[in-house]
Specification:
This protein is mostly helical. Helix content is 79%, strand content 0%. It has one domain: MetI-like (MetI-like fold, Orthogonal Bundle). It is built from twelve helices and no strands.
Length: 287
């Protein structure tokens, strides 16, 4: 009986391993192996010899630190903007009987199907040199105003636009899991709407907010199409990687920047995941 019970307990692990094996194989072939090749190329393996000179040169170059700061600032600002816009929308979409929820859900997910270059073009249509908003500002002020599209703010609008569906999809699942009876009980006990949100809704959404934030920031760190369309003087790390490959033909530099970007993104996702696990553990202890 004991042997049969032990064997039955082991079966789910074996089945889970078999189910996840294709994913692990795909990640190994399409992610880990290319990253390993880039890492080896970045330290000169296969070339003139093992060397970390490219890493030292990149870390000692102020321009790359500025580019990294630009990338981090844009990722952080766009993530905060997307969370502020999408959290109310996700809560509304999961309200029973909300009018127009299907149409709104489709509209919010359309950016998933659009390349970053197209999103950048949308920003140019509104805030470019001959954009609608630029022309209206000129008519109102009586003078020509600089186009917003090619500045930090124009890139920020584009980044927020393509992050909206990713954040909404993550938050909708958590919003749908909130028990309406809990909200009704809080209101019955006399809690104000603000108290209901701060004491019930936002704690329930906290894991999803952390997950959406990590996904949004990781996507922003690696975004290329929108940045390539809108960037003029505001440089971000993916543009530097592309320039090293195509303009300067410096594959070691491009590989080094790619490895650093991958490590930075992985560290970010790991930190957010650890923070979420720590908060869940603290919540369970409080209960």
């Amino acid at each position: 009986m004991t042997l049969q019970r032990d064997r039955r307990l082991r079966w789910p692990r074996v089945e889970a391993a078999l189910l996840v094996a294709p994913l692990l194989l795909g990640l190994s072939l399409l992610l880990l192996w290319p990253l390993a090749i880039l890492a080896l190329r970045s330290i000169g393996v296969g070339g003139e010899g093992l060397s970390f000179a490219t890493y030292r040169a990149v870390l000692a170059e102020p321009r790359y630190w500025q580019v990294l700061g630009n990338t981090a600032l844009l990722a952080l600002a766009s993530t905060i903007g997307a969370l502020l816009l999408c959290t109310p929308a996700a809560l509304y979409l999961e309200q029973p009987g909300a009018s127009g929820r299907r149409v709104l859900a489709v509209l919010l997910t359309i950016p998933l199907s659009l390349p970053g270059i197209v999103i950048g073009f949308f920003v140019i249509l509104f805030f470019g040199r001959t954009g609608v908003a630029t022309d209206l500002a000129e008519a109102a002020l009586g003078r020509r105003v600089p186009p917003l599209a090619y500045t930090f703010w124009g890139m920020l609008l584009g980044y927020i636009y393509f992050q909206i569906p990713r954040v909404v999809l993550v938050l909708r699942g958590a919003a749908a899991a909130i028990d309406p009876d809990t909200l009704d009980a809080a209101r019955t006990l006399g809690a104000s709407p603000w108290r209901v949100y701060t004491a019930v809704v936002f704690p329930a959404l906290r894991p999803a907010l952390l997950g959406a934030a990590s996904l949004s920031m990781a996507t922003a760190f690696g975004a290329f199409g929108t940045a390539a369309t809108l960037s003029r003087s505001y440089r971000v790390l993916p543009l530097e990687i592309a320039a090293a490959f195509t303009e300067r033909f410096a594959p070691e530099l491009a590989a080094t920047l790619s490895v650093l970007l991958a490590l930075l993104t992985a560290a970010l996702l790991w930190s957010v995941g650890a923070l979420g696990a720590e908060r869940r553990f603290a919540d369970e202890e409080n209960r």
